[in-house]
Amino acid sequence: MDMTRISGNIEPRAKLMGKMMDRCDVDIQHLAKDRLGLTLASAIRSCRLCSNATSCETWLAATAGEITHRPPAFCPNARIFAAMSQADGDESAR
Known about the structure:
Elements: H1 3-8, H2 10-23, H3 28-33, H4 38-49, H5 53-62, H6 78-84
Helix pairs in contact: 2-5
């Protein structure tokens, strides 16, 4: 695999993931602490390998200015983001 191609999607995917986390009201600090950072590492890897970047961009544009607390079903991190959404109540339990 070509390293240029691999490294070329890191920044755009990081931006998409950051926007998705903001839209779903996920606190990166809580995500980073979960399972000693393994949950965040898994989410980053899933986002980098995701084949739905265009759908992600479209969904983010359609929900601009909203806090949804519910990621779209096509997102490989939907379960993680839904579980870590600050809408879920007591953050001290995380």
